[in-house]
């Protein structure tokens, strides 16, 4: 039996190389799969340094000194911060990504199993998730304006916006939204706008336990519902009037 | 001028003597390929005693000879090194080097460091004979990070380049301080540097000339502390096709000519452009760095000026990865 042995020999190098380079060969999927766990977004060394650096952010801000202090805590050298080519932005990005990923564990909707779905509407789920995400900024909120300034630098705007879009998508997904029409886009776009506006409001909020931020968020969500209702009514009116006009013209014998 | 003339004469003589025993270098620029076609070509003679071959520009030479030939090239260009670099790169090489150093951000503020046991970075600058990178590193550490402890060891295989660097260091504040020292060393055998002793290993426009790049990378891995950084500034491949055409015209047409006119040495600069052409692409070199055991940040490199040069970095991990030998 020559062929099986040849087959196994030809497979082995591939297998071996996949063992050797787990990082380069790890696959990232463009879709969400319940079957496969998503690969971790940061390599072990990166997350070791970044997670210890986040602890220094309240004192040192999103800065290279927080990064090097984190590197030292993780047992690395100051020089090891060269692992992060974008410096402070990599630290901000770590905060954004890690908070987005931990959102699904941070918010549970109790009682859904007993009382059936629909007990808590999608709208209130979105509100709860958005609030939970905003609350995750609490320890570093006094440094968040610096972070927003860094994110607004021209070269960092595209990755920041992409991360905002991923957050809005994550919130709608966790809220159980299954729309497949154009509202898929408008929902995410409006939530992104609301979230970023509320986040900026929160950086200047001095109220106890950020109650003003909560009110602000509720007002914006209300606005979006009103606006959505208004737009829906508008389109309905246009649709009705258009059909009526066509029918009137047809009744006059016009070939439309 | 009076000082230059005997030096120039001496250098030519040296080159002449050095060139006698070897296969004559041929210019193979694109712009003069027709002229080249008319000349009788003499193929590189295979030498019986040294069967292991490597490339020297577009030529194939025995490995033992390459080191000697590279030494010859840099001995002959040492004094006109800066003028030539300025002319060839239109001054951009200074911007690349400045960016390279600023990006690495060497030095640590002694007030911010928590443990007083270790102060400053220990930097090893390989193939840094003229001190270009070393002085910038020390300047950055002292003025930006207020760090008076960071020290740089400049290693070069070529004593002429080191002499040039020592001469230049006299006008810097680091001339007789313990922060700067010069070592004549081959990057593939850094026996004088102990294991895990270096924070930052830099090589700017040097690794291209190494006979065994993989051996040099492994040696870099050995001398670096865990968490230490390997950083390499080197010519690379231009991404844009149109720009590549212009760039190739310039490098094969103009650079050897400038070399001939300014430094009186066409062959050395012909070697320079050929060695740039032979150097692996960004992805290949990134893979070589990974194979040596380093972690690479992000995609592994950063292009400068459309890919004419690129900065490659690698970080030595705290726990070594499982190597090929181990699995086999």
Please tell me about this protein's structure.
- The complex is a heterodimer of chains A (256) and B (328).
- Chain A is 68% helix and 0% strand.
- Chain A has helices at residues 2-20, 22-25, 44-54, 57-60, 64-73, 88-106, 112-115, 122-135, 144-151, 157-174, 183-203, 211-251.
- In chain A, α3 (44-54) packs across α6, α10 packs across α11 and α11 runs antiparallel to α12 (211-251).
- The longest helix of chain A has 41 residues, at 211-251.
- The relative contact order of chain A is 0.07.
- Chain B folds into 2 domains: 4-33 and 44-77 and 241-274, no CATH class; 91-236 and 279-318, Rossmann fold, CATH 3.40.50.
- Chain B contains 12 helices and 9 strands.
- Chain B has helices spanning 4-20, 33-38, 63-77, 81-89, 92-104, 132-144, 159-169, 213-223, 241-263, 266-278, 282-291, 324-327, and strands at residues 53-56, 59-62, 122-126, 151-156, 180-184, 198-204, 224-235, 301-304, 309-315.
- Chain B has a 7-stranded mixed beta sheet with strand order 5-4-3-6-7-9-8, sandwiched between helices. A two-stranded antiparallel ribbon of chain B has the order 1-2.
- In chain B, α8 (213-223) links the parallel β6 and β7.
- In chain B, α5 (92-104) crosses α6 and α9 packs antiparallel against α10 (266-278).
- Chain B is globular, with a radius of gyration of 20 Å.
- At the A-B interface, α1 and α5 of A face β7 of B.
